[in-house]
Amino acid sequence: MFYDRKDAALQLAKALEKYKDQQAVVLGIPRGGAVTGYYVALHLNAVFSLLVSRKLGHPNNPEYAVGAIAEDGTIHLNDTVVREVSQEEIDTAVAQQKKEIERRINVLRQGQPLPEIKNRIVLIVDDGIATGATIFAAIKMCKKKEAAKIIVAAPVSGNAILRQLRKEADEVVILETPAFYHAVSQAYESFGQVTDDEALGLLEKWQKQQNNPRSESHVPNRK
Asked: What is the pLDDT of residue 222?
């Protein structure tokens, strides 16, 4: 469906053009969402930053999400899964992820706070949505911060998650919803891991572009 994250991000950016020049805030979910968020923000002439939201793994299978926690401490729990784990196990997972959230804020944003989102259009962006846990936590956080409108945008997700997201966000923009969807990576030909340095580099690149608009005033051609 997509060559790589940049290819997908440029296609997603075009699908979101109605938010161009609306002083919107694009919040990428790192690390993969840093790539998506960068190109979307660039195309929309929007503010760009990285919102750290971390999955809370099942004690017997860390890859299986029982929920997620956003950087302000907002927690989303999967109602069907949370019955399988104790409160103590959830508390342990929360404590672990709070440490990782603090690390990522210090590394990826150099300890800087998120931009002000109260009464602003906010686009929560990722490179794809699997369980949706980190996105749901991010939505709750943005609601707490009184965003005027919350849009969730990603190149790919499953249909079931899409329906759930539409109940929580003001708008959801997904480019592809495969009939047989198991992982975000299946939508990409090239899907290497995004490193901390790459995510930080994109945020720094966007900041430099704001200081020197002539350096990169439009979205480059695909690939």
From this structure: 39
